[in-house]
Amino acid sequence: MGRGKIEIKKIEKSSSRQVTFSKRRNGLLKKAKELAILCDAELGLIIFSSTSKLHHFASSSMKSVIERYNKYEEEYHHQLLDPASELKFWKKEVASLRQQQNDLQEYQRQLMGKEKELSGLSFKDLQGLENQLEMSLKRVRMRKDQILTNQIDELKRKGHHIDQENLKVHKKLDLICHENTELQKKVNGNGTEEANESSKSLSHSYGFNNGYDYLQAPVVDLR
């Protein structure tokens, strides 16, 4: 069962706010470290809590990250004011994107595990590639297990629904059989009563009475 959605607004209770801050801060720092290692990214993360406590992380050093950021901002604003510099900037961006594309294609070929593509890699590179593959395989297995679990839960739900429907059908059949039995008893009972009435009628007609059978013959006067 998944967790409910948390409304994004300020947490009024200070103790709950501090617990949430600690959990999410640790998660954010962990993600920043993973991003720096996995993608070879230079990054800096600065966090000030509501109590003005500083938390930070830098892939190299915070000073170099800030200097690089300031330099980029200056170059960017300068390029916006100079059309020639802006054109040069975008050419540089295009070249950078193409290089990233080539790197990704090379990385994809390495993931395929072809010997030709792996021959130029060092032991450290191969170890890093192996870790990447293990992480990817772990995610694939987790996703596969989740799908299988969902399918099993769905089959159980359908099976339970079918069992309930079968139970309803059996109850209806039992009720119908009971009604048929009662109806048959009534029919048989009426037939017996009619047979008894017919017997009584015949008894009166031919002189059968009280279990003694006698025939009322005509009296002949012999005098």
From TrEMBL:
Entry's Gene Ontology cellular component terms: nucleus
UniProt-listed GO biological process terms: positive regulation of transcription by RNA polymerase II
Main subcellular location of this protein, as a coarse class: nucleus
Coiled coil: 87-124
K-box domain segment(s): 87-179
GO MF term set: DNA-binding transcription factor activity; protein dimerization activity; RNA polymerase II transcription regulatory region sequence-specific DNA binding
UniProt xrefs under PROSITE patterns: K_BOX (PS51297), MADS_BOX_1 (PS00350), MADS_BOX_2 (PS50066)
Subcellular location: Nucleus
Domain MADS-box per the UniProt entry, residue ranges: 1-61
Top-level taxon of the source organism: Eukaryota
Xref: InterPro entries: MADS-box/MEF2_TF, MEF2-like_N, TF_Kbox, TF_MADSbox, TF_MADSbox_sf
Keyword Transcription attributed: yes
Keyword Kinase listed: no
Keywords assigned by UniProt, alphabetized: Coiled coil, DNA-binding, Nucleus, Transcription, Transcription regulation
PANTHER family given in the database record: SERUM RESPONSE FACTOR HOMOLOG
Name of the protein in question: MADS-box transcription factor 23-like
